[in-house]
Design a protein that fits this description.
With 100 residues, the protein is of the alpha/beta class. The protein has five helices and three strands. The protein has one domain: Vaccinia Virus protein VP39 (Rossmann fold), CATH 3.40.50.150.
């Protein structure tokens, strides 16, 4: 078994992550922080897009990174379904390198 997190958060695990998470954080907590701190903001380990997509819908300028391609594919699909444009990149937070 691999010790790389992105290998774990793939396939069935990625599909069931949010439904089995138990409870998801209220995006309002993050919205207050981002509005106070300013944008653009970066969400590390953004996964399938919670709470990032709700914050994008509120007009926040956000970027996200995650090490799981499957989780980012879900995020992009959810954004598309909601008519949102999402900026996410596949990379490890330990090796962060963004153009912006």
């Amino acid at each position: 078994m691999s010790d790389v997190a992105s290998d774990f958060y793939s396939g069935l695990v990625a599909q069931l992550y949010e439904p089995l998470a138990g409870s998801l954080v209220d995006p309002e907590v993050f919205l207050r922080f981002v509005r106070k701190a300013g944008t653009p903001s970066l969400e590390l380990a953004c996964g399938a897009g919670h709470p990032m997509l709700d914050m994008l819908a509120q007009g926040c300028d956000l970027w996200g990174i995650d090490s799981s391609k499957d989780m980012l594919d879900q995020c992009r699909e959810k954004a598309k379904d909601r008519g949102l444009r999402v900026n996410v990149e596949l990379q490890l937070m330990q090796a962060l390198g963004l153009e912006q």
